[in-house]
Amino acid sequence: MLSGTVKSYNPHKGWGFVECNGQDSFLYKKELKGVCPSKGDPVKFDLGQSEKGTTAVNVTVMVPEETAAYFGEVKSFNPSKGYGFINSEAFPGTDIFVLRSELPGGFGPQGGHCKFKVAKEAKGPAAKDVMLLGAAGNQVQQMKQSPWGFEGKGFEGKGWGKGDPWGGKGGYDMYMGMGPMSPMGFGMGGYGKGYGYGKGW
User: Is 59 within 8 Å of 44 (Cβ atoms)?
Assistant: First the structure.
């Protein structure tokens, strides 16, 4: 086996490059045994060939278990209870427990692909720092951008100027979607500062 370094890796696309003795080889997700590498990670691998050129195969990422990141898939998630489970090739036959607090926006779509770290707890392995990938990640981003989503910014008014007798700095602010997250993924909005009065003439 050869020794090299991860030159780059995109977890959303599932590929990158390994550098060894000045030569770059393709690095594909299917060769990583469920581990998600980062730039600079040392690796051991064999060389193979694909239609795109030299490829790293049978890859082992040489990082400590407590700092390693893994690929997984959300097996289940119960929004009312606030927890679920993740499956990963790196942990065959084991369900990785995950709390809502470790998921982006508290959202865990069943079947969604993800990147995560693992902490060993009394009841078994638990997922930490979960990042949703691909379609699942895009879904969360769309919810964030929606004015009715759990991080929607809504509208903001600036009020009238100082020269108007009814003016002021307060204005009328309305925020949509800034409230707490509901099980269906919608925020519960509120209202801002109301009207202000200025200095007059």
Answer: yes
CATH class of 2-61: mainly beta
Q: What distance lies between CA 47 and its chain's CA centroid?
A: 31
| Calpha distance 113→104 (Å, rounded) | 13
What is the distance in angstroms between the CA of the first residue and the CA of the last residue of the chain?
A: 83
Question: pTM (2 decimals)?
Answer: 0.68
Whether 152 shows a pLDDT value over 80: the answer reads no
Question: For the chain, what are the domain ranges?
Answer: 2-61, 69-134, 146-201
DSSP H or E stretch at residue 61? strand 53-61
Flag the least confident range among 89-93, 128-132, 159-163.
159-163
Both tokens of 19, joined, read: 């550098």
* Tokens standing for residue 21: 């003795």
8 backbone dihedrals φ, ψ, rounded to 5°: -165, 155
**CATH code assigned to 69-134:** 2.40.50.140
